[in-house]
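tokens incoming
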């Protein structure tokens, strides 16, 4: 089956991480403390954070470039190695004072027993070089994804948005934290329910949600706000109004990385010239597939379009 995404170039910038999985068996309780003893039988490294967004883009067959900051450490080298393995073009800045973000998960009998995080923030000097590279890379990309995990890799995000807007490159942002003013001028932001509530406050009806989401969208001068709502599906807020589609997951096994899949699919669909509504529909289906897999997983072109892209979108750019 021909993959019509092959010539689409998407730049991902943000906080790259290394997801480490230690798998094993837990058959007894420790004599030292009331905790299970996990006998590790297998270890696996996966790309996480912004790097997982790039992995999802590449898994669909599009061309992904990743701009990020990592440490001069074993984990940073492993991130770069995995990027090459996944056919992602790496643009990594090394910071000797930075510990590459690692999320270590211990899994027994397909249940996560523990997660340990290792992280700190990059220095200003490295981030300055990061921005210089960004201004060069954006010239050769059709869509920009800014994956913000609050680790410091997007401290220059306001300037990044200005540069992309000047070049008329669509900007999709996975937000973090309570200061959404830094995302002003983006095309779309994709918060989940908890993230949006942190910014606009709780809501008690669909009418109140729409009022708060639309007020935020207008204040930030966004084309759209895409709210991911887990079992409630997704809602797209635009100047035309709000549109909700139900979730499509048959079985929820693991939600980690689902947001990365959603924004990656949205980015590829936008690069193909699809409307935000159609892009949301496909991203929603992708999210339903990926939550049925363990860990930070991806969706392939064949899984998403079993009958071919052109059958879903006749007359689209191929």
């Amino acid at each position: 089956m021909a993959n019509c995404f092959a010539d689409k170039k998407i730049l991902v910038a943000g906080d790259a991480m290394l997801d480490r999985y230690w798998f094993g068996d837990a058959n007894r309780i420790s004599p030292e403390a009331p905790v299970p003893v996990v006998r590790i039988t297998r270890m696996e490294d996966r790309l996480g954070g912004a790097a997982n967004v790039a992995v999802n883009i590449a898994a669909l067959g599009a061309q992904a470039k990743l701009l990020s900051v990592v440490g001069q450490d074993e984990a940073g080298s492993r991130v770069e190695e995995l990027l090459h393995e996944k056919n992602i073009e790496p643009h990594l800045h090394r910071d000797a004072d930075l510990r590459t973000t690692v999320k270590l998960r211990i899994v027994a009998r397909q249940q996560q027993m523990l997660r340990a995080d290792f992280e700190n923030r990059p220095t200003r000097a490295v981030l300055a070089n990061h921005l210089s590279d960004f201004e060069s890379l954006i010239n050769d990309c059709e869509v920009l994804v800014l994956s913000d995990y609050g680790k410091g890799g997007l401290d220059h995000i306001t300037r990044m948005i200005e540069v992309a807007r000047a070049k008329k490159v669509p900007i999709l942002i996975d937000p973090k934290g309570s200061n959404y003013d830094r995302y002003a001028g983006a095309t779309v932001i994709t918060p989940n329910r908890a993230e949006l509530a942190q910014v606009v406050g709780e809501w008690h009806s669909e009418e109140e949600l729409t009022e708060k989401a639309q007020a935020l969208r207008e204040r930030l001068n966004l084309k759209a706000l895409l709210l991911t709502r887990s079992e409630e599906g997704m809602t797209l807020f635009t100047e035309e109004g709000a549109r909700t589609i139900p979730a499509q997951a048959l079985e929820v096994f693991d939600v980690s990385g689902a947001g990365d899949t959603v924004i990656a699919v949205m980015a590829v669909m936008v690069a193909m010239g699809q409307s935000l509504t159609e892009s949301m529909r496909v991203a929603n289906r992708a999210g339903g597939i990926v939550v049925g897999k363990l860990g930070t997983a991806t969706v392939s072109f064949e899984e998403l379009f079993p009958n071919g892209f052109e059958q879903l979108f006749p007359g689209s750019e191929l």
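note: Residues 276-290 form the longest helix (15 residues).
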